Amino acid sequence: MLILFLLILPLISADHNNNNTSIIYIHEELPPNTLLLQSISSTNSLQWLPSSYLYRIYFNLNQNQSLYTTNQRLDREELCERNLCNCTYCVLTLNFLQTFSTNNISIRTIQIVIEDINDHAPTFKQSFIKLSIAENVPIGYEIPLESAIDNDYGLYSIQNYKLHPIINNPFRLIQTNKPVLKLIEPLDRELKSNYLLQLIADDGGSTPLSGQQKIEIIITDVNDHPPVFDRTIYQQSIPENNKINTVILQIHANDRDENENARLSYSIEDSSSTFRINEHTGELYLIKPLDYERIRSYSISITAHDHGIPQLSNYAQLIIDITDINDNSPSILITNINGSHYDSQPISLSECAPKGTSLFYIYANDEDTNENGRVRCSVNDTRLNLVYLTLNAYSLQITGSPLFDYEAEQFVINIELTCKDDGHPSLSKTVLFHILLEDCNDNPPDIISSIPYNETILISYETTETPFIITQFEIEDRDLFQLNLFSYSFTVTPSLDLSLTNNGTLILRTMPLNLGSYIVNVTVADSGNLTNTISIPINIYSINETMSSRKLRMENISLVLVLSFFIIIFIASITIGICFLIGFLFRRKKKSPCLCCYSCFNIQQKSIRNSSCESMNSSNERADSLQKTTIEVLDDGINSSNRIYQYGAKEANDLKVVNTRGIDRGDFSYSEKVERYLTHLNNGIVGIDANYSDDGVYGSSDLSSDRIQKFSIRPPSIISIPSSQQHYQDSLKRFEQLYSFVEHRQQAAFTSDSLYV
């Protein structure tokens, strides 16, 4: 026995991912009572969870908290066939409830990975088969053969096929997922009417295991066209609640022969007997209920054969996938804190239980998969909360907000736990459990006073005799099972000679020296040291002082009203004076001199009106010596040598017009001369008196040649005026250039700074 254990020990290995999960790797076919994991828990508190009950036939948890195998044969292929584990990677998940203390439990998970060993040899459903082939089949004709079955997986499953004999055999084996015989030489029934072959299937073990099938091929010479299916592989998905005796799909094959040689019959190989096929029409029917949780797919071999002589047949593969529907409601398991099963009896809970106190442990499970198997649980009381522990495992705890209140709920509280899945439609299950509340000292005493809240007690100094009973309190405590023993204390600000008896009577023993307001804070404590405080304002007053203060108050009110009246009159007077001052300044600002010269310059009138305007301007200049004739010189911002001259009027006492030759001219004759030039220019008069000479009045600088060229276009009203005096022509040309600039709105080319000459 010791030698056997030493041989098995290398087959077992453990891996601890974390404190609550262990992974054990073992091989299948372990002997009974093999130790897998020793001393899982030191507290002797492991319990199987319901989700792992089905594994107890294979594993045993003894009193020492060690995990052993049982007498049940641990066959990986059987576990895969029963859908207890994945066929590719077989993992059994064992969940235990581990209790360390009343408030400390956890879910202990042990994952057992079962690795395959080469314990199954390949087998064929039939050890001997007969096949009929017409002698006129062409070279390359293929005959599908039955695949061998090996319950092992991976390398230990079927790896290759071999065909014997090779010599004097016109068939060769094609190595595919399914063995196929291929004709490589023409057949001749007269030379050889049958062939005996042997098909061998080998697996991939270190010492390969094999299975054999004998094949007899009979050569015929009549029916030469086998049936041909529409597809070599048919695939169909149906829900697990598909109705019985309904058509799933129809199989169809063709035969190019005629009459009996073309009449086909269909058959299937279904080991589960879940389906049947109509041999004449090829319609496939469901004859047993489906269960996705038990079997998720079916692989069926379909045969079509004709009725010729010899009979020809062909094969196709049908794969039927079962889809899950939400047909299983969640199952709920409730356990007490100590790990025992909840027996539907009410549990006791103190109303002062702290936040986070656990009441139950809840485990929910759904046999469906994906969303149909995803479970969500909730309770109908916000004072309780489900705390997630692990997959589908919860702890029912107190949230602490709002609190349980025994005084408001003196009865059994019914709690509904509802678990529902995420399927469509969703299925749910509800469990009812009961909580019996117990009282605790959680309410401070209530102080009941005959005096309204925050109302001041008035005590007359002259008429009150001491000791004087101020008030008496009544105490109530809402805690029903607490002793009605209360203690009293008080503080008073400022100091006052008071006393408070054990029955809640507040007494003023002597009158104070100082009159005024006092605040008395009375505190009452119950046997559990819960307190409550009430504030009582007291005003001790004198009757004589009260009458004097009222008279003084009336006199002060009269004085305030008189002062307010005079202040309003003063403010109104100031406002009216400011308004008159603003109006006076506004009227002075609107007065300005009449610039007749400027008006004569802009009005496009005939020469008669211009002459009258000139004479009026001359008379105004003689009458008012303050109005001076000016020429405004605008400098070009680009070139300081480029200037434009404008005529205007300015009010200045000391302003004189100076020409470029430095000769001082009289205001009247000079102004009149400039006005005459501008008037003739605006009215388009051709001839100008030669007596009016320029005398260099308009400056010594011209515009640059490029700007003269740019504004060389003159309006139709301006023409060249012939004159024998060249400087007169130059002066008129400058006026024309000025007019062109003004007419084309090019004033922006000059700076805002002006020189007055």
What's the name of the CATH homologous superfamily of the domain at 331-438? Cadherins
Distance between the amino and carboxyl termini? 135 Å
Radius of gyration: 60 Å
The counted number of beta strands is 43
Question: Which structural class do the helices and strands define?
Answer: alpha+beta
Do you know the CATH architecture of the domain at 331-438? Sandwich
Q: How are the strands of the largest sheet arranged?
A: 1-2-8-7-4
Beta-strand content estimate: 35-45%
CATH class of the domain at 331-438: Mainly Beta
Proportion of residues in helical segments: 10-25%
What's the average pLDDT?
A: 75
CATH T-level fold name of the domain at 331-438: Immunoglobulin-like
Regions with little confidence, pLDDT below 50 for 5+ residues: 1-14, 592-645, 649-668, 684-724, 745-757
Q: Biggest β-sheet, characterized?
A: 5 strands, mixed
Number of helices: 9
Describe this structure in words.
Residues 58-124, 125-229, 230-332, 341-447 form the Cadherin domain. Keywords: Calcium, Cell membrane, Disulfide bond, EGF-like domain, Glycoprotein, Membrane, Repeat, Signal, Transmembrane, Transmembrane helix. It is found in: Cell membrane. The chain is 17% helix and 37% strand. It is of the alpha+beta class and 757 residues long. β1 and β2 (21-27) form a beta hairpin. α5 (596-602) runs parallel beside α7 and α6 (607-623) packs antiparallel against α7 (667-683). The radius of gyration is 60 Å and the shape is elongated. The chain starts with a helix and ends with a strand.
